[in-house]
UniProtKB/TrEMBL annotation:
Keyword Ligase: no
GO term, biological process aspect, one: ATP export
Keyword vocabulary terms for this entry: Ion channel, Ion transport, Membrane, Transmembrane, Transmembrane helix, Transport
Full protein name: Calcium homeostasis modulator family member 6
Subcellular location(s) per record: Membrane
Amino acid sequence: MEKFRTVLDLHLKHHSALGYGLVSLLTAGGERIFSTAVFQCPCNAAWNLPYGLVFLLVPALALFLLGYVLNARTWRLLTGCCARPGCGGGLRTFVVCAQLSAAAAVAPLTWVAVALLGGTFYECAASGSAFQARRLCPGRDSRCEVQMPLVPCGQAQVPEVQELHKELKAQSQVLGWVLIAVVMIVLLLCTSVTRCLSPVSFLQLKFWKIYLEQEQQILKNQATEHAAELAKENIRCFFESSHPKECNTPSIKDWQQISSLYTYNPKEQYYSMLHKYVNRKEKNQSIRSSQGDAMVPIFGFVDSTGMNTTPSL
């Protein structure tokens, strides 16, 4: 039991890092399966380039779109957007979209980096490229450009041309390591800048995340109890042909306000939209946009929490 509790505590403390690590691991495993069991380079001058690029980039695009689908902030932003005036524009929406794109890019970048390190997809695509042929073939056998598409399959009849396999693989692996280095540098810089510009301290930020976990858990429990009571009352009235007792349920406007994107105001320290809603000065006051509110990148985790973090489609 103690070991299970230790694992649970580790997950709660580092769930974001573990989630990104698991996504990267699954993506790398998927790429290995594709490259060994599915991918078969046609070794044809007309097909090598498009075939290799499709396997290199299309799965990355699919993973990128999947990252949007599985992010709770996407649906917090889009749900009911068309029914609200002025939705879909402004700096706030741009900032959120940029953060969503950065989070969604983890899996596709992992796919491309692992694929480049393996070299299979790049070798196939590059061997069918006229640009690579013009760059690598000068000074070699006159049949180089014709034989080059056969290199990935090991069918080039000229040994000098077949040796280009090593050069293409080296190019792919260098590009893979460069991509990894660039991503790590950009990630470090962005994390450092957002942390440096944070209006709250390190310990308050940790408390903030603890508060959100507790708020969402209690909200889910209370919502379940309230929904069960409302359902029981409606079913009782249906069978007894009676009128239901009054049951206080938040209005559509109330739900919309606590579901809107979080904005930070240094004059009013609220940890969530629900916290801001219950502390509003006037009952009919809108909490979506107040004077001094700003979209702070480091507080993006506030919108990522929800009663169900994976949306049902």
